[in-house]
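agent> Task received from the user: take the single chain below, predict its 3D structure, and emit C-alpha coordinates. No templates, no multimer pairing.
agent> Plan: (1) validate residues, (2) run structure prediction, (3) serialize to C-alpha coordinates, (4) report one or two observations.
agent> Step 1 OK, no nonstandard residues flagged.
tool_call: predict_structure(input=
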Amino acid sequence: MSLVLIALGAVLVSVALFNKMPRFVAERPAVYRSGGGVATAQRTAVPPRLRLTDARLTENGRAVFTAIGGSALIIAFFLALSGL
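)
tool_result: status=success, residues=84
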Protein backbone atom coordinates (compact mmCIF):
# COMPACT_ATOMS: atom_id res chain seq x y z
CA MET A 1 0.00 0.00 0.00
CA SER A 2 2.78 2.39 0.85
CA LEU A 3 4.47 1.81 -2.53
CA VAL A 4 1.27 2.81 -4.32
CA LEU A 5 1.01 5.95 -2.22
CA ILE A 6 4.67 6.80 -2.88
CA ALA A 7 4.16 6.42 -6.63
CA LEU A 8 0.94 8.48 -6.57
CA GLY A 9 2.48 11.21 -4.43
CA ALA A 10 5.63 11.40 -6.53
CA VAL A 11 3.62 11.76 -9.74
CA LEU A 12 1.37 14.48 -8.34
CA VAL A 13 4.24 16.48 -6.83
CA SER A 14 6.35 16.23 -9.99
CA VAL A 15 3.43 17.41 -12.14
CA ALA A 16 2.95 20.36 -9.79
CA LEU A 17 6.66 21.23 -9.77
CA PHE A 18 7.45 20.95 -13.47
CA ASN A 19 3.97 21.73 -14.88
CA LYS A 20 4.42 18.93 -17.47
CA MET A 21 2.28 15.88 -18.20
CA PRO A 22 3.16 12.80 -20.25
CA ARG A 23 1.15 12.40 -23.45
CA PHE A 24 1.01 9.33 -25.67
CA VAL A 25 1.81 10.06 -29.32
CA ALA A 26 0.41 7.40 -31.62
CA GLU A 27 2.41 5.72 -34.34
CA ARG A 28 2.35 7.48 -37.68
CA PRO A 29 1.61 5.30 -40.67
CA ALA A 30 4.50 4.24 -42.82
CA VAL A 31 5.41 6.34 -45.81
CA TYR A 32 6.88 4.41 -48.68
CA ARG A 33 9.51 6.28 -50.63
CA SER A 34 11.23 4.98 -53.66
CA GLY A 35 14.81 6.03 -53.94
CA GLY A 36 16.34 6.93 -57.24
CA GLY A 37 17.54 3.67 -58.76
CA VAL A 38 16.82 1.53 -55.67
CA ALA A 39 14.77 -1.57 -56.41
CA THR A 40 13.00 -1.69 -53.01
CA ALA A 41 11.02 1.04 -51.36
CA GLN A 42 12.21 2.40 -48.02
CA ARG A 43 9.71 2.33 -45.16
CA THR A 44 9.90 5.24 -42.72
CA ALA A 45 7.58 5.15 -39.72
CA VAL A 46 7.68 6.80 -36.31
CA PRO A 47 7.13 4.37 -33.41
CA PRO A 48 4.69 5.26 -30.61
CA ARG A 49 6.23 7.21 -27.74
CA LEU A 50 5.57 9.45 -24.76
CA ARG A 51 6.12 13.18 -24.94
CA LEU A 52 5.96 15.80 -22.21
CA THR A 53 3.41 18.52 -22.79
CA ASP A 54 2.34 21.50 -20.72
CA ALA A 55 -0.14 20.68 -17.95
CA ARG A 56 -1.48 24.27 -17.95
CA LEU A 57 -2.14 24.28 -14.21
CA THR A 58 -3.17 27.44 -12.41
CA GLU A 59 -1.63 28.36 -9.07
CA ASN A 60 -4.61 26.82 -7.31
CA GLY A 61 -4.24 23.62 -9.31
CA ARG A 62 -0.54 23.40 -8.52
CA ALA A 63 -1.30 23.95 -4.84
CA VAL A 64 -3.91 21.17 -4.85
CA PHE A 65 -1.57 18.74 -6.63
CA THR A 66 1.24 19.56 -4.19
CA ALA A 67 -1.01 19.21 -1.14
CA ILE A 68 -2.53 15.88 -2.20
CA GLY A 69 0.80 14.46 -3.38
CA GLY A 70 2.62 15.58 -0.25
CA SER A 71 -0.12 14.14 1.94
CA ALA A 72 0.12 10.81 0.12
CA LEU A 73 3.89 10.78 0.68
CA ILE A 74 3.49 11.54 4.39
CA ILE A 75 0.85 8.82 4.79
CA ALA A 76 3.13 6.34 2.96
CA PHE A 77 5.99 7.26 5.29
CA PHE A 78 3.96 6.61 8.41
CA LEU A 79 2.53 3.37 6.97
CA ALA A 80 6.08 2.19 6.29
CA LEU A 81 7.10 3.09 9.85
CA SER A 82 4.19 1.13 11.30
CA GLY A 83 5.07 -1.92 9.20
CA LEU A 84 2.01 -2.05 6.97
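agent> Step 4: summary for the user.
The two ends are 8 Å apart (CA to CA).
agent> Done.
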